[in-house]
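ping. complex inputs:
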Amino acid sequence: MRHEFRLPDIGEGLKSAEVVEWLVAVGEIVNDDQPIVVVQTDKADVELPIPVGGTITRLAGGVGTVIDVGSMVAEVEAGDRNEQIIPEPERPAPAVTEPHVQNPSNSPVTAPRAAPAVRRRATELGVDLASITGTGPGGRVVGQDVERAVASLSGAEGEPNGRAAATDQSTLITPAEGVAGRYPMRGRRRETSRRMKQAWQEIPHMADFRETDARGLIALRDLLRREAPPADAGSITYVPILAKIVAVALMAHRVVNATVDPHTEDVIVHEHVGLGIATQTNDGLVVPVVKNAEMRSIPEIAREVKALGAAADNRRLRPDALSGGTFTLNNIGALGATRAFPIIRYPEVALMAFGRITPRPVVDGEDIVARPMVDITTVADHRVLDGRELTAFVDTVCALIENPMRLLIELR
Amino acid sequence: MVVGELADQADLLVIGGGPGGYSAALSAAQLGRSVTLIQRGGSPALGGTCLHVGCIPSKALIEVAARRNSALEAAPFGLTGGPLTLDLAAFQKWQSGMIGTLASGIAGLLRERGITVLDGTARFINPHKVIVEEPDDRVRYIQFTDVIIATGSVPMAVPGIPFDGEIILSSTELLALTDLPRSLVVVGAGYIGIELGTAMAKLGVDVTIVEASERILPSCPAGVVAPVESRLTALGVTVLAHSTLRQAQNGLTVTTPAGERKIPGDLVLAAVGREPCTSDLGLDRAGLTVLPSGHIPVDSSMRASEHIAAIGDVVQGPALAHRASAHAEVAARSLSGIPSVFDSVVPVVVFSDPEIAIVGMTDDEVKGAGISAVTATFSMRASGRSATLGRQEGFVRALASRDDDRMLGVQIVAPHASELASEAALAIEMRTSPLDVALTVHPHPTVSESVSDVAKALMQRASNRANANHPVHKSGRPSSIRSAP
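pong. complex structure:
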């Protein structure tokens, strides 16, 4: 079967690309996803892998050929693979000898007397219904019987089956009376779990705790609200202002606007700020990214933050809205917190959390006065940054918060 | 720099948007998965065979045929008038509107859950990637974490007599007719052949049914078919058992036990079964081997491999929409890390006249499993509601295990049997005692009373037998037992 591999839209408004180097020749046998060509876009040289392996039968043209998006790059004859091709890893089918019609162990006759919902629960918990004595009418196994069985299994010692090993851990933490619930982490929870574990295991975190006068910040917010068209006034919160301040500070401390290549451990310093805004939704935590935050006005950022938040709540975020982050801002004040120890969003190198603005006594000359103060917690990847870079960056952020007029210094 | 994958990414991919596929997509989305569904024809084709060329259009045709026929048979009630005439083109127009509405309802559900629906035909190129041929000769690649195969099935042709779309029709083409034929030969007396043959006979078409085995509905227990056979005879349908259609050139030639004979037939409906749509999926590239029948072997969690599940008609067993939907949930949960098994009883319903419902174990299955069972049969002649319908043929038969007194199976041959099936299924799924069913108050007068009547009869039998220590009742033939007054 012949496949035509066409130039995909690789983003950034690319319309065409120029062939810099062919990595394969006609007649060559390639694997799935093997890079076959290097093309030049206005940003970079890019290797393009071919999605389907096989024998190359045609290439678009010589070095220097310009290929439009959607036009043929190469043609491959799939199907006649030979030994040169590394086979796909074998994924043996499960040992199914008889085609499955009905699970015999759970037929209406032999299975214990239990309703479908109870049977499902038992399957989820890995409990063999046959091992349970039902307490319902006529020996019926009811939901409580299953939960009790789980609790007693957790408490059991040295059970010879695998189940006991699986519950050893819970033995340590489960009171003898039983468990209140047990559930698998899935969906967004599972994703968050995976990312947090990776970040915590791989990134040596260090933190900087500050407290800053928020009067200038409050004044700027009030000004922006007054000046904004009524429809937009609601979107002007502290978040877009802090986003702008952070973006400007990152431009002054480029090494903080970086990510780590997980494979090479190279530090990649980014030209633009992709500012992730940690957003709590009903389904869990997501971090939509405001792209090129350093180039956008506060009202523009405000509108985008609002739109991203609404999309996140409705589960309508496009995947590209979650990618491209270079730094994350976490408004822990929205949850009522003042200080926290957040975890860096892998593979970024720093994250900043802003607490709730609270009035506090402050020494001003000879006097103690009440001032609205904001706590700023900044965590950084100690592999990449030392205390000096971190504190210098935080100094800039604090200075901008105390006197937002300093933003004018960056104005071009 | 390498630009990642050039394939689109999908968390959970569903191939096919019939009752199995779209149910799987909805279940998976509810579990927090990001779902992409591929359906040839895109959103308007959602609902698959069931909605567009199967369950729904066939039931619409059966309904309209039954209404016309009941008017013809209403004279005993004192209701007379000329035969109603069917404008089949007008019926088709009404029907396509109804189907369109249902399909857009499914599309709306999928949209609400944020499921991406793509128009195209998918084929595996490796265990984690498919190529999708889209309309206008475009292709795209989709790399996925998990996949559910729900491509369904298509009608099989009679060996040596391929479909031609003019004379030799599949059920799909028969259901799309805009003119009624004068005569129709139905090859295959399975549920599709019986349902459509009966409907066409009720619309005034001269119907002959040709069946290779000894009787109609060969996959149903022998005991349940007699009322349907009598009804076919009353409707003027000729049934040729032990017969096969040999050729369709220069008239139709059938081989019968009495030798070859020519039979009249403007059209032929080939309804000899359905075959799974698995041959063009590139399953070998996914590392899967299909059975000789084309079905995909799966385990009880509906998985064919660690990250590939198969559901519905591509899995061996009866090709039923509700079976596919039930598979769907198990597959979505299994692939999302929740231990799940498919252990449900799948009711089989035939929209014959009278309707048939078979739920749980049959007499043969009980005997085969060596289970000691009590059985009882309740005739519809004792049902007041059936009498008011003027339809007293049929019965409800039930089986319960003697040892632990639980409902094992129910067979119903009666008007509205399709609607009664669910109560029987619930009783079996709940592992109830016949006494539970008997003690549940059923409204009067309804056909459903027969279910509680048969449960009472079972209880009576069980207690009689316990007292007299009789041997197990072996006969598969229905007998008539009246419930206690």
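Chain B is about 30% helix and 25% strand.
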